[in-house]
Amino acid sequence: MASTSNSTSSKIITLRSSDGEVFEVEESVALESNLIRRMMEDDCANNIIPLPNVTAPIFYLVIEHCKKHAEMKDNKEKKKELRSQGEELLKSDPHTYSNLMEAVNYLDIKSLMDLTAQWLADFLKGKSPRLIRELLKIKNDFTPEEEAEILERNRWAFD
Amino acid sequence: MDLDASSSSSSSSSGSCVEVLPSALLASIFSKLDVPSICSMAATCRTFNSCVSNLLSFIPDFSLLDVALTVDLLRRLLPSNPHLRILKIDCGRLDDLAIALLARPSLHELCLVECNQFTGLLLSQIGEKCRDLRSLSIDSLGENKMRSIPTSDLEKLLSGCSQLESLSLTFDITRFDWDDFPPVWAMTSRKLIALKMGYIASQMVTELLNLKVVLKQPPHHVQPVVLSRLQKLQLLVDFITDSLVGTISKVLTSLTHLDLEDLPDTEPDVPWDLTNAGLQQINPNGKLKHLSLVRGRKLIYTYFRRVNDQGILLMADTSSTLESICLGGFCRVTDAGIRSILHSCSNLQKLTVCHGSQLTDLVFHDMSATPLSLTHVGLRRCNLLTKLAIMRLACNKDLRLLDLRHCRNLGDESLRAIGGLPKLKILFLDGSNISDLGISYLGQGVASLISLSLKGCKKLTDKCISTIFNNSFGRTLQVLDLSYLPNLSDHGILSLARSGVPLIELRMQNCSLIGDTSVIALASMQAEGGWCGSTLQLLDLYGCGITVLSFRWFKQPYFPRLRRLGLTAFFHRDMVDALARKRPFLQILHHSQEVGDGYWNPDRFSRFEYEVDELQQWLYDRESESDEELLDGEIENDEEMIEE
Q: Which of A65, B137, B289, B400 could form a disulfide with B168 if both were Cys (CB 3.0 to 4.6 A apart)?
């Protein structure tokens, strides 16, 4: 994973996901995560850092997006691309999105947090409750009476 | 955040997912949404509902200007919230009973539009409660009651809000008691730098500006002038006069923005008019960046008769600092006058000239020789301009807004020149002589339009619609005006609907060939994001050939976002009433009525003006996220709602 970067003398950090897979990540990428930063400051840096709350496939996604995010900093086109990717992910696989979001939250990666939160916000914007339930596979857990009351109260919003 | 929770939900792939995210996280995501979307979330599931309830008690910014809610609905959305800083509300259905809900001590910014049913109590209560307010805007106060407003209420407002930096009172100021009016301003916040008022008599303004304050504590010296720190002043007055302009220039030495519009009800006489001598007094301190002088023709047909090129030349001499200039109703000014502005204002970015009936192509003759790079140009009703002027103007490759309404001589060749403007976002071509071929030229260089107005371009046919939406420049459109196109038919609208472009406003006034098919096509339009129905918030079908059949397509679940619908008045009255009952928050507009009432009533128009301003602002906000400068409503309202 580390070989793609062009910085020369970067330190490599080793991380282990909850399902036991080991990742080697450039320090600059790893330090995007405040969780890892804190762990390294606490001097666990020479060993493999365990990430008990993140599975390998999700961690792949996180690293991929961290890199993309670093690239896009001054590239408007890329920014757009990344935004539309978020929409696709939410449409095709809201479940993976939630896991990604959780992982980002757990790893405390500020830049990705903003990005993934914006994805969901953009996705939700202007959609009716029914459509959101359908797209994100959310169960309607209101009682019929509750629902009628809430709909009546909010119908102006999605009339 | 528990691993088990996430893995167990992953095993049941059909199960829920997004709602298992921590509620603080969800709330922070929801806080990025607009208020209607937040309310949609609340009705989705229990988790979201409780998230929203939480959110509403700490959200810092609550803006709801596109729909007028009742006090009961609003009360639920505005629980006690010590973090609320910004509140913007359409008060169309509210009255004094809602004041307690609106006047909150935590606020820094308060914007209330359509306050027709409120009394002066609103002002005094805001003054008492909102001590930290920095910015206040109140529109149409008490205009349903048409009673005078006690000046003491204004006094309480001005003395209470001691931190106020920006104040906008857009209602009939003459309803305050004239004698008391200037003195109450002695209490005004020392921090006030922006003031917008109107309608107000220009004599009241001069008295107000000349007001001096005697300090109660020693030393009893006379303080200069209450409002002397003002940097921005925007007024709608009865007459723009030399003495008004002179007083403003003399007293307000820090002014950077001056925006004056008048509405004469009689032909102005000599001391009550603007002359060359008055213009000469503008910008004595060389700080002015934005200047707008407009003579409104809503009450009588008039213009600045006493200003000619000489006046503009003298003004241009002292106005080299200007970045934006708007001149409306200077009918005697010719190419020489406007060219003197182009040559002396080396920082000019925005130029608007309305009713420049003497302007010819020579006005931009040596445009390329100036160092200017204009971004906004408006030339409404400059009838003599031809393609030559536009070709020369098109050397400003940074143009983002171009307003060529009612420049009758412009044809397809002009569009060929406009087609070379890559950054163009907003284009008005109302009443010009263009054809379908011209529209196709836009595709050559324009990257992404946001707003396009083709009102009254009578040669256009259905073909232009497919040209627009098959080109990349049209796929970003949000606002489209196709009114008064006699050849536009359902075929055109079908291709529009097929394109799936998520339009927000679509106007098709008086297109008689448009029928029910168009309504059905728009209602079932599939825009991005799997919307069933369309994203339209405004649909104007006044004077179209629609029948009873269309009505069931205006009901739920079609047009879920629709806020305003234009329909011919007296058209199936019972159906319209039934629709209004079914969708109480859909505003149904009958233009013939509105225009009939409004033509002589300036209040109506000030509201319309506000809408146009808002639209411009809104368009501009979307236009470029990085661009922070404000659009100062350089396109003023279109006073002719009816085509001539």
A: B137
Residues B390 and B359 sit within 8 Å (Cβ to Cβ): no
Judge whether B215 and B190 are in contact, CB under 8 Å: no
Query: Which of the 8 DSSP states describes residue B533?
Result: B
pTM of the model: 0.84
The dihedrals phi and psi of B166, each to the nearest 5 degrees, come to -135, 130
Please give, rounded to a whole number of angstroms, the shortest distance from the CA of A69 to a CA of chain B: 18
- A106, A137: one domain: no
**Chain B residues within 8 A of A137 when measuring between CB atoms:** 14-17
CA distances from B139 to B102, B150, B159, B168, B609 (A): 14, 17, 20, 8, 12
- The predicted pLDDT at position B485 comes to 95
Flag the least confident range among A31-45, B32-46, B84-98, B423-437.
A31-45
Cα–Cα distance, B26 to B5 (Å, whole number):
17
- The sign one gets for the Cα dihedral B527, B533, B537, B538 is positive
Cα dihedral B217→B220→B226→B230 (10° resolution): -90
A119 touches chain B (CB under 8 A): no
Q: What is the CATH number of the domain that holds A20?
A: 3.30.710.10
Q: What is the pLDDT of residues B108-152, one digit of tens each?
A: 999 999 999 999 999 999 999 999 999 999 999 988 877 889 999
CB contact under 8 A, A124 and B37: yes
| Structural domain for A121, as ranges | 2-125
3-class SS at B89?
strand
**A126 close to B (CB below 8 A):** yes
State both tokens at B521: 């096509």
Encode B558-570: b = buried (16+ Cβ within 10 Å), e = exposed: bbbbbbbbbbbee
Q: For residue B223, give the amino acid letter.
A: Q
Number of domains chain A contains: 2
